[in-house]
């Protein structure tokens, strides 16, 4: 079980005053702080609710721990479906997002990797992550999203490409209503393959693939609101079409951090991330959902996959071709992977797990101790003949 992120960890990106305010605000006292509520954009799209800060600690801590496991080569792929809150800014909340766990995870990955590639397939533009790394070439952000018609958050035009050292390292793929699996996947494969593994020159067989950006790690935000029939979305993607992006990125065999994100038709969110967990684990899942406590949500067919939608596809072939050409043209300006000066790797934060003074002397086994005892049934023992198992 991952640790809860500490305020000092959150302040690696967010301003300390904003983090401190999130700690002390709650539904009972929020009316006492109207100015601060407005300053930090809390209220409308970002309501204050019970245990809000603990909620932020849990999902942010999980993404940070996922990045650390990848850094220490304890796994090849790490998943945090509770994460992916990509709208939160340095000093304010936005779009249901309070703490930007993706930025915190990427900062952790940058301690060990010279370059990180961020890919976002949420229906909304990944503005918070893009803004955080808009002036650096060490993080390339690629966002596929609905753009136009005053759709939230209103950013993500193809012309937004980064500035200063980060110029051409922000890639935006603005889409219109109703994009389907085939159009989305063709565009996704063309752009991501160009970014990651561009070509093998000439007819000579070369074992080492020449790469444009050469990311040391990839962060993939899998917002499920890009699925058909999402309450806030407007795309026609089926679960298979959405999951195809995950399958494609996995094939690069680059350390991969996968998170959730948006998704407002909850039964389809559960379906989508279940299918994508299976893909990441190379596990084939049956289409029939087994009986469980929540089976009533998945009627009447109780199946895992959902088809695409029937919204009119406003993404014409000429529009898709124009967007693709503009993006690939911008990528030509990246001649080679940007270099990073050698330096000592910053250490992981050392923060004690708990404060001895806060332990309840009346509780024999507290929550922290129980968490330490959680382990997989199949992690240490090979079978009945293993002496340690008995």
Automatic annotation (TrEMBL):
Reaction catalysis annotation: N(6)-acetyl-L-lysyl-[histone] + H2O = L-lysyl-[histone] + acetate
Cofactor entry: Zn(2+)
Domain Histone deacetylase: start-end pairs: 3-277
Q: What is its EC number?
A: 3.5.1.98
Q: Tell me which Pfam families the record gives.
A: Hist_deacetyl
InterPro entries, sorted = HDAC_I/II, HDACs, His_deacetylse_dom, His_deacetylse_dom_sf, Ureohydrolase_dom_sf
| Positions of the UniProt region annotated as Disordered | 347-390
The answer on whether this UniProt entry bears the keyword Repressor reads yes
User: Which UniProt keyword terms apply here?
Assistant: Chromatin regulator, Hydrolase, Repressor
If you read the UniProt record, what top EC class would you report for this enzyme, in one word? hydrolase
Q: Which family does it belong to?
A: Belongs to the histone deacetylase family. HD type 1 subfamily.
Please state what the protein is called: histone deacetylase
Q: Which organism does this sequence originate in?
A: Brassica cretica
Q: What is the lineage of its organism?
A: Eukaryota, Viridiplantae, Streptophyta, Embryophyta, Tracheophyta
